Amino acid sequence: MIREIFSSIMGEGKYIGRRFIFVRFAGCPLNCVYCDEESKGYFNRVEKIPGSGEFETLQKMEIEDIINAIDRLKTPDLFAVSFTGGEPLLYHKQIKEVVEILKDKGYRTFLESNGMFPEKVFYFDIASIDIKLREHFEYIKDEDYKKLYKNELKTIKKLYNLNSDVYAKVVIMEETNIEDVKIIAKDLSDIGNITLCIQPVTPHGNIKSPSQKKLFEIMEACGEYLKDNVMLTIQMHKYLGML
């Protein structure tokens, strides 16, 4: 189910600052402590004018409606169409139909996913996989976390082998263990030439951002395996008040 389709600036990750059309899907099996997805109560919103933040609500959102919305929101500076969430791969069959049409129209496609469904992933021009840490959850069983992490790596490897421009992102909190992120960097380097985006959590409530010292230490630790394929990004769109 689609929450909204709109045009904005990519606020995080490897392609921060680029113009995107975002197709945001509702729902995610995970419940990360920093996520506000469930607080959004709207569905089927489509931005009226690119970047305006003004929406209309459609009665339905079929494949044709999605394509029409994307075509209407296309701007000369558009970089790609992002399928985001929530977890978009919950709707992988519908998304695949949309992606095939978009490719025929010359659009570049982008996936933002938590990577928990390697069996559902398929080729996108670009993909960002959000690797989770244990502290991202109020509680998670050890075997469940290990399964999730294994699937995240499987998803990254599958996309890499499909020649997608895939990169990983990990949200860093004050309590994050540097060694945990270092292990992720090593595992990514074993797959191939993968960029890792280190992202300090956006503070809210009891969630606190990591210190500058911790961020530098984590980047240096990751650099032992990834060299200069590690970068820090923030949620720029939130600082700018954008969607």
TrEMBL record:
Please state every residue range assigned to the domain named Radical SAM core: 15-243
Instruction: Name the chemical reaction catalysed here.
Output: 6-carboxy-5,6,7,8-tetrahydropterin + H(+) = 7-carboxy-7-carbaguanine + NH4(+)
Q: Which residues bind [4Fe-4S] cluster?
A: 28, 32, 35
Q: What domain of life does the UniProt record list for this protein's source?
A: Archaea
The pathway where this protein functions is: Purine metabolism; 7-cyano-7-deazaguanine biosynthesis
SUPFAM superfamilies associated with the record: Radical SAM enzymes (SSF102114)
Query: What sort of enzyme, by top EC class, is this?
Result: lyase
Instruction: List the Gene3D superfamilies.
Output: Aldolase class I
- Listed cofactors: S-adenosyl-L-methionine; Mg(2+); [4Fe-4S] cluster
Q: Which GO terms describe its molecular function?
A: 4 iron, 4 sulfur cluster binding; carbon-nitrogen lyase activity; magnesium ion binding; S-adenosyl-L-methionine binding
List keywords of the entry alphabetically: 4Fe-4S, Iron, Iron-sulfur, Lyase, Magnesium, Metal-binding, S-adenosyl-L-methionine
The record lists S-adenosyl-L-methionine as bound by 34-36, 86
The EC number on file is 4.3.99.3
CC cofactor note: Binds 1 S-adenosyl-L-methionine per subunit. Binds 1 [4Fe-4S] cluster. The cluster is coordinated with 3 cysteines and an exchangeable S-adenosyl-L-methionine.
Q: Which InterPro entries match?
A: 7-CO-7-deazaguanine_synth-like, Aldolase_TIM, rSAM, rSAM_sf
PANTHER family with a match to the protein in the record: 7-CARBOXY-7-DEAZAGUANINE SYNTHASE
The similarity comment for this entry is: Belongs to the radical SAM superfamily. 7-carboxy-7-deazaguanine synthase family.
Q: What's the subunit arrangement here?
A: Homodimer.
Q: What is this protein called?
A: 7-carboxy-7-deazaguanine synthase
What organism does the UniProt record list as the source? Answer: Methanocaldococcus bathoardescens
